[in-house]
DNA sequence: CCGGGCGTCAACCGTTCGATTGATTTTCGG
DNA sequence: CCGAAAATCAATCGAACGGTTGACGCCCGG
């Protein structure tokens, strides 16, 4: 494992792929094993015999498969590579999801190149690396007793809130009664410390519990 | 003007800057004139005598000066360079604002490298270049009679809505009566084709009239 | 085995919101 | 100079929303 570290770059932006490749090629003991524009293409490459040590992957990818799903499938492969998530926002709703999906680490795109290099090396050694802002966020969530941790159902309803649906519409969408929707909402308001649906959407967005898109 | 095209790269992500530099350096008649991590740094460079023909600038820049403001100030300089906006989303709330601020063109980060190269050349010749999705969006907005074009006040109120404020809070924030807030909201709902505040936030977000932050 | 979180539902009540109508002032473009 | 759009305010009314209380079954973990 002490030879060249082979890295597969996955990002839907050609510009970012080029930047990553430039940075990676600059490191003496690292080489790019390939590039993919989305999760599906990355999986195809892996199944076609490309064997990187580390996958550097963006979470937000416009059209193609989402990064979390791709991570899940990659780590489900036999002898999977380490998956390093590279994302734009530390407030992303999917940090936790990505970690649970088996991601080895989490980096921010505005990280300095040295940090990226260190992370790639660490990931190749099987270590977990979290960018400081990300780590702080995760810790904050754990330390606070997982307080802002909405239940799955509550998160689902918050998502529908963010689409602008009224209680009745939500109830029909989920095949539950309006009363139940209201109960969930009361819980959501309590956990988020707000007192209106619109404020809940704002807080949920800010806390990264739901994603804009 | 037929010599080397000098390009100043402005983006808060080191990875993106590297990607842009790699792409730019690959073009025979283009060279990078410098890099900046935000609008303020770009302005400093320009005032310190860096004289690029084209400024390639991201709109979303975390901490520093926002791209629109930077564009405004750059185009206000004597003999200003062309400003090419490079952004992630075609749904950005600031497309129009950037154009009005004097941007020469608008590119998406997921554009293929050739498109970027063509845009830089066009910008250096003083031509306006809009990425097809961006152009379509602008046209759509103009063609539809500027329908979703909220008035400044309405946009402001929509922004406060998205922060989760109640009508009374908005009225106090803006030093107007609650009745006025409601009147504005009715207009907003009409223009967006919705019938609730939460739906208005969702629609405003989707239409890029307000930004998530 | 039992407490507790989760998901479901109901009834009540006060408040906020959305819709409507109508009015005044300013500003801007034709 | 006149009309249109924007911004301001008021009053009303029904519908939607938020808060509260109470209830039931499920399942997990101590």
UniProtKB/TrEMBL annotation, chains A, B:
Keywords assigned by UniProt, alphabetized: DNA-binding, Phosphoprotein, Transcription, Transcription regulation
Domain Response regulatory residues, every copy: 6-124
Sites bearing 4-aspartylphosphate, chain numbering: 58
UniProt record, GO biological process: phosphorelay signal transduction system; regulation of DNA-templated transcription
Domain of life: Bacteria
GO MF terms, alphabetically ordered: DNA binding
SUPFAM superfamilies: C-terminal effector domain of the bipartite response regulators, CheY-like
Pfam families: GerE, Response_reg
Domain HTH luxR-type: 143-208
Matching CDD domains: LuxR_C_like, REC_NarL-like
Record InterPro entries: CheY-like_superfamily, NreC/VraR/RcsB-like_REC, Sig_transdc_resp-reg_C-effctor, Sig_transdc_resp-reg_receiver, Tscrpt_reg_LuxR_C, WalR-like
UniProt keyword Membrane present: no
Protein name: Response regulator transcription factor
The species this protein was found in: Streptomyces triculaminicus
């Amino acid at each position: 494992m002490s030879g060249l570290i082979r890295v597969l770059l996955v990002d839907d932006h050609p510009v970012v792929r080029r930047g990553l490749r430039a940075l990676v090629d600059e490191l003496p003991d690292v080489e790019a094993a390939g590039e993919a524009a989305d999760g599906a293409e990355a999986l195809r490459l892996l199944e076609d015999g490309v064997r990187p040590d580390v996958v550097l992957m963006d979470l937000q990818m416009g059209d193609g498969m989402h990064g979390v799903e791709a991570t899940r499938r990659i780590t489900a492969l036999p002898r999977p590579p380490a998956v390093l998530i590279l994302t734009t926002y530390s407030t992303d709703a999917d940090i936790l999801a990505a970690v649970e999906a088996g991601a080895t680490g989490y980096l921010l795109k505005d990280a300095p190149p040295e940090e990226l290099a260190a992370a790639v090396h660490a990931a190749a050694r099987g270590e977990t690396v979290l960018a400081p802002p990300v780590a702080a966020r995760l810790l904050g969530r754990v330390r606070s007793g997982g307080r802002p941790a909405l239940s799955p159902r509550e998160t689902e309803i918050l998502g529908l809130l963010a689409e602008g649906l009224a209680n009745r519409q939500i109830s029909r969408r989920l095949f539950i009664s309006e009363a139940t929707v209201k109960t969930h909402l009361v819980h959501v308001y309590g956990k988020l410390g707000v007192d209106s649906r619109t404020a809940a959407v704002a807080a949920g967005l800010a806390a990264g519990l739901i994603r804009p898109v």
